[in-house]
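Cross-check.
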Amino acid sequence: MATTTTTDARDDDASFTARGERRDATSDAADAAESSASAESSASADAGATTSTPPVNEFRARYDRVRDDACAVSSIEIRGNERTRASVIERELARAYEARTLDGIKDALFAANARLYEYGIFKDVAIVIDADHEGGRLDGGDVPGAKVVVSVEEKDAFHFKVGTYVSKRGEGEAEATFGLRNPLGYGEKFEVELIKGQNSSSTYSAAWEQPKLYGSDVNLDARAFQSVECFKKLSSFDVTSRGIRVGVAGDGPGTVDYEIAWRDVQDPTRMASREVRRQLGHSLKSAVTHTYVSDRLDRQVRPTSGYLWKIRSELAGIGFMDNALAAKFVKSEVSAHVVETLDASRGITASASGRFGVLFPWGKSGNDGDSRTCIADRFFLGGVGCLRQFENNGVGPSDARRGTKKTAAAEESPGAKTPSSAEDGEPSLTRDALGGDFVWSATAALQMDIPGEKFEAMREAGIHFHAFATAGTLLPLAALSGAPKDAIKVVRDATRASLGVGIVWPLPIGQIEMNYGKVVRAGTNDRVSDGFQVGIAAHVSM
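Predicted model, tokenized:
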């Protein structure tokens, strides 16, 4: 009986088992090619045959003696592809035809197996190699042939998903997504997404995703959307956008997106400040965005080692340089996060993170020909996710909302929270956060597991203590227009800082924190939250 090799195509290293009688290690490559590369990592004996499995190291040694012997793929058979076109699978296996050794075939099939899983349309992919007794030898009879059998199990055509999330604005959202998977047989996906926020935010989109575009490593994502982003609680405006976004991503960490959207900034409160009212109206956004991410964290939820950094650059105004309604700007943001374990036995880790961003307007925008940036494109700072002990978007430039008696009274005590005045329909805040064109923030923190046997369940859930120090600055670009020495002084004088301790519950959707801290430095009109602060953030500076 011939020897059979079985490998797990989803592992980095092959694991080997054998079946049948032991044979001399000098058996020819035709028998050695009677092997299997299976995603199931298991080999079954023929019906009625007696099975004996030699030790793994013994079989591995026998395999190593013939791995470089001549062998070539003579045929490929595909099974189980009810919707998927055979050409899609054959394209990913094409490199196996180029291999001329048993080991080369194995490596090519491992790579093909991984690429097929990347389509996201298969539950399982099993690839088996056998000696091709019918096809005989190739290349004039010098190279024994091998037959490859690919068995796939496809995922369901229809998929549906619902969930709750936290947006980058700190707003709770409910999401429903449904669509078709691989309807035409090329690995494509069609999805409809519905998102509704707890305030007035909403997103409706229809997307078409095409992986491995024309056999390349490029994945295409095209979507039409309508979204409403609600900032009325903190800044007295909403942004309605309708447009198209097209994104491409290769096998590397970078992505490129193009978006063209018609935007409408409105004041649903009728109490917006003068600066916000200057921003109201329509604008056209035509922008190219490049995002590069390098993620070396050991895990996403409560990492213990590694680093992550991200660069996002955006150029707006593409193709509409002479259009007064087109937004024209260059925006770049860099963020980084590093974690190191100090004491693994007690779960003590140290982390540091930082963020730096700039927004430059160019050309003339708006009916008045002003070169100011749009409030919908600016940076904001403050909140559990970026600068603790300050309220959401509570740092940086702001402007008083339209005057009322309560507004005037609150202005006499700047830097403090304003009591809600929902009884007469007035907004609870007296100033609109305007955002800024220049931002930086930094956080240093220590994390520690909660000690004690009673809290074992909390430790398993990732709940832990932390102590933190944060600092940051948010400014309009006009504030930095002077000499470099003057700009440095402005940034230093505008720096905010806070210290504190708390309990953290990290979740896949975000991080829930209950902190007690103190604002060390704040601006006159900042909204601070000294003492206890509870919040959840999707994007956290740990």
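The radius of gyration is 30 Å. The chain has three domains: 6-154, 157-230, 231-537. Passed to J.P. for a second look.
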